[in-house]
Amino acid sequence: MLPIDPTADRARRVWLDCPNCRHGVGCTDCENRRNCSQHWQYLLGNDATVVHMQCPGCAHLWSTDTHRRGVA
């Protein structure tokens, strides 16, 4: 398991599912797209609409483009 990035800050968070551990599955707040106090990711940075995150639970690092997210 990777260590948590030294630049990670609890004040900079994002509420997107971790593709590795999916630690918010079954949480009523997360399933209703509300900001849960327990299931969030560290926001490490962004490049325009691409956000870079790390999961505090499993330390997985990933990026995703949030442009038009959720639009069919």
What this model shows, in words?
The protein is 6% helix and 26% strand. With 72 residues, the chain is mainly beta. It has one domain (13-65). It has a 4-stranded antiparallel sheet with strand order 1-2-3-4, with no helix packed on it. Strand 2 (41-47) and strand 3 (50-54) form a beta hairpin. The radius of gyration is 12 Å and the shape is globular.
Characteristics of this structure?
72 residues; mainly beta; 4-stranded antiparallel beta sheet; globular
Overall shape? globular
How many domains, as an integer?
A: 1
Strand order across the largest sheet: 1-2-3-4
The main pleated sheet reads as:
4 strands, antiparallel
Beta-strand residue fraction: 25-35%
Query: What is the count of β-strands?
Result: 4
Instruction: Outline the low-pLDDT stretches.
Output: none
Oligomer: single chain
Estimate the helix proportion, in percent. Answer: under 10%
Class by helix and strand content? mainly beta
Give the N-terminus to C-terminus distance in angstroms.
Answer: 35 Å
Order of helices and strands: EHEEE
